[in-house]
Design a protein that fits this description.
This protein is α+β, with helices and mostly antiparallel strands. The protein folds into 3 domains: about 100 residues, Orthogonal Bundle (Butyryl-Coa Dehydrogenase, subunit A, domain 1); about 110 residues, Butyryl-CoA Dehydrogenase, subunit A, domain 2 (Beta Barrel); about 140 residues, Butyryl-CoA Dehydrogenase, subunit A, domain 3. The protein is built from 11 helices and 10 strands. A 4-stranded mixed beta sheet has the order 3-6-7-10. Strand 4 and strand 5 form a beta hairpin. Helix 9 runs antiparallel to helix 11. The termini are far apart. Bound molecules: flavin-adenine dinucleotide. Flavin-adenine dinucleotide binds next to strand 3 and helix 11.
Length: about 425
């Protein structure tokens, strides 16, 4: 195994493996070069069901190829098929991999490998860990998050989807919404209400649910950026065995917070690379190509976007260093997430200024109208994984020590709360 390799040896071996297994990107040295190759700055996919399914197929095939050498899970223990190496090795591999032609990203892939697999590692029984963790890390199966409901988003703990015990089984009835990638997932991490008589946070339990069970209906939702990434998921008398309960009964809130914590933890990213949406270099190239970089307002918008991206990068590096030193994920994840979504908004504002009418009228000019997919998609991430306002509440209360929000239902049982 490669565990004893130095960083330099690892980089050489990884480069050799990539040379054999992937094609070098022609534009890698000049990311953002105007007019070269395909242009994509989309935040969400605007694809048909078949196109999105095929894209996921390509991503998972490439991922499984990497898994043959442990490159899919570099920081994970060997027990789960990883290499047991530090984040530094993982960062090096990502940087090298970015120089090669690999399939585009997809959020269901990230949810499966980055959110659900580590949640099961933390809360699963040994049997569940053995059954799910390696499988999800390799993306042999995909998994979605079944948390939000029509009446429970920011206030997730008020959710109503019921799981009632029936001997060794649980019977699920209710509805979830905004479930990204549910139509492509074989599994779902479900948070359901198992006890309506206790306070809302305490009556929840987490489960792993096979998405093809009788009684589960998945209905895609069309979004303004063109695609159908999200779904409504309906449960009618769906039966699952107790062996699919994740964590102890009543501990679903902890499980949910852990998954959301992974979603908000941006410490692994340097701020800007391998992210959905446009990059600063593409933004700059667009402004240069349109001859707008002499204008004070445009220069100001570009500088603001650049400074923001750099600050975000430093904050994320600091969080990554803290994590590497053994500190648990904390409220700084909210800061990272907020900076990320604010950066996307700054990019939308800057590119709208640069493009003007070309953003909304397709003139056929390369690299212009396509920015609409960034501008229309970016607001979604200001809501997903906890809205900007909710992140500010967390930072206010847990970082700045400001007084908490009034919580009128704090001591009420869930069934007595207003919903
Ligand atoms: C791109 C995307 C992907 C998603 N994927 C999934 C998924 O895979 N699985 C899943 O379960 N869910 C998913 N969601 C749902 C997401 O978690 C919720 O949309 C989010 O938690 C907000 O809930 P809500 O939509 O019910 O809005 P609400 O909670 O009703 O919020 C409405 C508005 O009120 C504000 N607000 C609410 N509470 C407060 C407060 N206490 N203080 C200040 N302002 C407040 C919010 O910021 C927001 O502006 C996704 C959403 C998006 C946009």
């Amino acid at each position: 195994m490669m565990i004893t390799q130095t960083v330099e040896e690892f980089a050489i071996a990884a480069r050799e493996w990539l040379d054999v297994n992937a094609k070098q990107r022609h534009d890698s040295a000049a990311e953002g070069a105007w007019g070269a190759g395909p242009f994509s700055v989309s935040v969400f996919h605007a694809l048909t069901y078949e196109q999105e399914r095929d894209l996921l197929g390509e991503i998972t095939a490439w991922h499984r190829q990497k898994a043959e050498h442990g490159y899919h899970a570099i920081t994970w223990p060997t027990q789960f098929g990883g290499l047991g190496l530090t984040k530094e090795y993982a960062r090096i591999f990502s940087k090298l991999e970015a120089e090669y032609e690999t399939p585009n990203r997809h959020e269901t892939f990230s949810v499966t490998t980055g959110l659900i697999a580590p949640t099961i590692e933390r809360f699963g029984t040994p049997e569940q860990q053995e059954r799910f963790v390696s499988m999800f890390l390799r993306t042999d199966a995909l998994c979605c998050q079944l948390f939000s409901e029509p009446g429970a988003g920011s206030d997730l703990a008020s959710l109503s989807c019921r799981a009632s015990r029936d001997g060794d089984e649980w019977v699920i009835n209710g509805q979830k919404v905004w479930s990204s990638g549910a139509q492509f997932s074989q599994w779902g991490e479900l948070i359901a209400r198992t006890d309506p008589d206790v306070a809302k946070h305490r009556g929840l339990t987490a489960f792993m649910v096979p998405m093809d069970l009788p009684g589960i209906e998945i209905r895609p939702i069309k979004q303004m950026s063109g695609g159908t990434s999200f779904n409504e998921v309906f449960f009618t008398e769906v039966r699952i065995p107790d062996s699919l309960r994740l964590g102890t009964e009543g501990d679903g809130w902890n499980v949910a917070l852990t998954t959301l914590g992974f979603e908000r933890d941006h410490s692994g990213s340097g701020g800007g690379s391998a992210r959905p949406g446009g990059t600063f270099s593409k933004l700059l190239a667009t402004a240069q190509a349109l001859g707008r970089t002499d204008e004070p307002c445009v220069r100001d918008a570009l500088v603001q976007a650049f400074i923001h991206m750099r600050v975000e990068g430093f904050v994320n590096r600091r969080a990554a260093d803290l994590r590497a030193a053994g500190a648990p994920a904390g409220p700084e994840g909210s800061l990272g997430k907020l900076l990320w979504t604010e950066g996307m908004t700054k990019m939308s504002d800057a590119v709208s200024l640069v493009l003007g009418a070309k953003l909304v009228a397709d003139t056929g000019e390369w690299g212009t109208y396509g920015w609409g997919e960034h501008v229309l998609g970016a607001p979604g991430y200001r809501i997903a994984g906890g809205s900007d306002e909710v992140q500010r509440n967390i930072i206010g209360e847990r970082v700045l020590g400001l007084p908490g929000e009034p919580r009128v239902d704090k001591n009420l049982s869930w069934k007595d709360t207003l919903r």
